Each structure stands twice: as C-alpha cells, then as structure tokens.
C-alpha cells in the first residue's frame, strides 16, 4: 500500500497490508490496458543509435514498440 493508504499495515513483513473498502473506492481502473512482456534483444549498435535518434524526446521503449507494431501491421 502506498503512503496515502488509510489501511493499517502489518508489522510482519510476510503479510500484505489490509485493504479497506475505502482503499478500493479510491482505486483507479486502467482502461485499454495492454500487458507488456520484458524481452532482451541483441541489436546492432547502428540500429539502436537510429532508434534513439528517431525517438528524440519521446519515450524510447514506446517508440520501439510503436515502430514494431507498425511493421507488424504492414506484414501479411
């Protein structure tokens, strides 16, 4: 639970804090949630440099994801 929680936490580190109805009422539902999967790729240095240059101020991983998604939709 975060520091804004009004629920009591347990002194036993093996237990989760209690969740009250008040906590649930303040919960935010994420819409259009897409599960992400972490992967490790070995890419050529020039490709990584190009991707980072193209991403610019935009989140680098989001740019790579959108670039791959675009390529995926063009491939039949």
How would you summarize what this structure contains?
The protein contains 3 helices and no strands. With about 80 residues, the chain is mainly α. The mean pLDDT is about 80.
How are the secondary structure elements laid out?
Layout: H1 21-26, H2 45-55, H3 60-74
Uncertain segments are none
Q: From the alpha carbons, calculate the radius of gyration and give it in angstroms.
A: 20 Å
State the domain count: 1
Overall 3D form? elongated
Give the mean pLDDT. 81
DSSP helical segment count: 3
Helicity, as a percent range? 40-55%
Estimate the strand proportion: under 5%
Distance linking N and C termini: 45 Å
Largest sheet: none
Number of DSSP strand runs: 0
Class based on secondary structure composition and strand pairing: mainly alpha
Instruction: Note the run of SSEs as H and E.
Output: HHH
Textual characterization of the structure:
This protein has one domain. The protein is mainly alpha-helical. It has helices at about 20-25, 45-55, 60-75. It contains three helices and no strands. The mean pLDDT is about 80. The protein starts with 20 loop residues before the first helix and ends with a helix.
């Amino acid at each position: 639970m975060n520091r804004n929680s009004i629920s009591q936490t347990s002194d036993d580190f093996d237990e989760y804090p209690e969740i009250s109805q008040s906590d649930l009422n303040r919960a935010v539902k994420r819409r259009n949630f897409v599960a992400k999967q972490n992967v490790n790729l070995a890419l050529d240095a020039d490709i990584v440099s190009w991707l980072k240059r193209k991403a610019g101020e935009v989140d680098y991983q989001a740019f790579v994801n959108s670039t791959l998604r675009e390529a995926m939709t063009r491939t039949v």
